[in-house]
Amino acid sequence: MDQTGRSLISLEGLDREDILWLLGHAAKFEANPNSKILDGKIVATLFFEPSTRTRLSFETAVNRLGGRVIGFSDAATTSSSKGETLKDTIMMVSNYADLIIMRHYLEGAARYASEVSPVPIINAGDGANQHPSQTMLDLYSMLKTQGRLDDLNIYLVGDLKYGRTVHSMLTAMRFFNPTFHFISPDELKMPEEYKEYCRIHGIKFQEHSSFDEDTIADADILYMTRVQRERFTDLMEYERVKDMFILRNDMLRKTKPNLRILHPLPRVNEITQDVDDNPKAYYFQQAKNGLFVREALICNALNLLK
Amino acid sequence: MAKNGKSELLVAALENGTVIDHIPSDKVFDVVNLLGLTSIDTPITIGANLSSRKMGTKGIIKIADKFFSEKELSKLSVIAPNIVLNIIRGYEVVEKKKISMPDEVRGIVKCNNPKCITNHEPMTTVFDVVDKENGTIRCRYCNKDIHKGDIRLL
Q1: Of A41, B1, B15, B87, which has the fewest beta carbons less than 10 angstroms from its beta carbon?
Q2: Angle, nearest 10°, between helix axes A132-146 and A52-64?
Q3: Within an 8 Å CB–CB cutoff, is residue B148 touching chain A?
Q4: Do A34-130 and A133-287 agree at the fold level?
Q5: Per-residue confidence band for B5, with pLDDT thresholds at 50, 70 and 90
Q6: Taking 60 as the threshold, does the pLDDT of residue B41 lie above it?
Q7: Residues A103, A132: contact at Cβ < 8 Å?
Q8: Residues of chain A neighbouring B123 (CB-CB closer than 8 A)
Q9: Chain A residues with CB within 8 Å of chain B CB
Q10: Cβ-count burial B89-104 (b if 16+ within 10 Å, e if not)
């Protein structure tokens, strides 16, 4: 597993075996989420950009494993607001902590931190670039609900242009022979560079512009994302398409029994409330899976997994 | 280059040194900066906007008594991949070489992504050359690609 030291910056360096090995450990943590494996360890969570759910998930993971947490949840309260460089902040914190988990609004910040830091770094999101723990929990949720990662029909819906999670999923799934279906408004279509990536790696995909019960009838996984108003240059276009990519319960009638609906959260209105009670809705359990996956990623970064 | 006397007068012959030919006209001074020619004390001839059959116009730089390492020259590839180098010894061209793109470009190019960490920290930029033929480089930090025509120097 080639990462910078034991840091986790992106999933780029992980192969099929690495991914399955980490997910296997996540399953062990799910069976036994509380332990003292991090006893005596201090983990810093540096959130230069607020992200409540990611931070709570990581901090819960540390706490459940008996470690202690230091850190901040908003850069406005730190010396980076006084103009301190990221390097200096990282050097200072690495004097205190055994592991740094960081979220930053700038792209590439985590890689740079891993180059200067004497302790491992886990990237909890760097701008629009990478968010590996989110992708790992998406994969874990697919593996858990489908019993396999191989040969799945995965439907990605919504903002496929800017959606960081859908891009990382494409790259991480390249080892598992998926068939992707891209469903999005024209303005938010999957960028050409990612389609080219699919072609190069032999990943099958189809594009759809309409989102209805017939289109999704063959799905194993329906991965919903939010269509955000601020992504549109043409607001007329936004008004026209904003209600076309909403999942309603009655659209699920023809879907397969094993279908599960995923969403990275926060949801706004792209999945209506009546879907929540459908047994195919999986987004809240998906978020819970994040805890077990992060327990595995933290222990791996500290070289505690066997 | 045209073989009539006037053109040859424009760029005098060199006894020993390096002639950098076929520089795109708008890149001449980028080449000067990249090779650090402003701090060299041997004679330098810089020609810009000279007529060229192949390129329309071109630039040419002659540096007397100076030879560059592969590493120094490979820097030039990011701004002008078709540059030709003539190594001159005793008024003769003893070697003619085309430069090739290196595997990585360090500390020369600015990342075009305003949200890239390299534009906010005092640090060295690093790009991996992902397509040597078309001159595409990828920022090692933010993973954004820059194509040949959009490359800007630091």
Answers
A1: B15
A2: 70
A3: no
A4: yes
A5: very low
A6: yes
A7: no
A8: 87, 112
A9: 85-87, 104-109, 111-112, 126-130, 193
A10: eeeeeeeeeebebbee
Query: Does residue A3 carry a pLDDT above 70?
Result: no
CB A179 within 8 A of CB A153: yes
Per-residue pLDDT for B4 more than 60? no
pLDDT at position A2 is 41
DSSP string, A66-114: T-EEEEES-GGGSGGGGT--HHHHHHHHHTT-SEEEEEESSBTHHHHHH
Facing residue for B117 by CB, picked from A108, A130, A193: A108
User: Residue ranges of the domains in chain A?
Assistant: 34-130, 133-287
User: Is the CATH number of domain A34-130 3.90.230.10?
Assistant: no
Task: Tell me the two tokens of residue B38.
Answer: 């402003």
pLDDT of amino acid B10: 52
Torsion of CA A220, A221, A222, A225, to 10 degrees: -170
Asked if the C-beta of B122 comes within 8 angstroms of chain A's C-beta atoms, the answer is yes
Residues of B in contact with A112 (CB under 8 A): 117-118, 121, 123, 141
Dihedral of the alpha carbons of A110, A222, A204, A218, in degrees to the nearest 10: 170
Q: What is the mean pLDDT of residues A149-157?
A: 98
Closest CA to A293 of A1, A101, A19: A19
pLDDT > 70? residue B2: no
φ, ψ (nearest 5 deg) of residue A293: -65, -40
Predicted complex: ipTM over 0.90: no
- In which order are the strands placed within the sheet that holds B136-139? B104-106, B126-131, B136-139, B145-146
Question: For B45-68, what is the mean pLDDT?
Answer: 90
pLDDT at B1: 45
CA distance B131 to chain A (A): 14
Burial of A78 (0-12, 13-18, 19+ CB in 10 A): middle
Q: CA of A114: how far to CAs of A7, A83, A94, A120, A172, in Å?
A: 7, 20, 11, 7, 21
Q: What's the pLDDT at B80? A: 79
């279906």: which residue's tokens? A181
| H helical segments located in A6-68 | 16-31, 52-64
CB contacts, 8 Å: A108 with chain B: 116-118, 139-143
State chain B's mean pLDDT as an integer: 86
Domain range A133-287, CATH class: alpha beta
Q: Which domains does chain B have, with CATH numbers?
A: 5-98 (3.30.70.140), 104-153 (2.30.30.20)
Rounded to an integer, what distance in angstroms lies between the CA atom of residue B10 and that of residue A27? 75
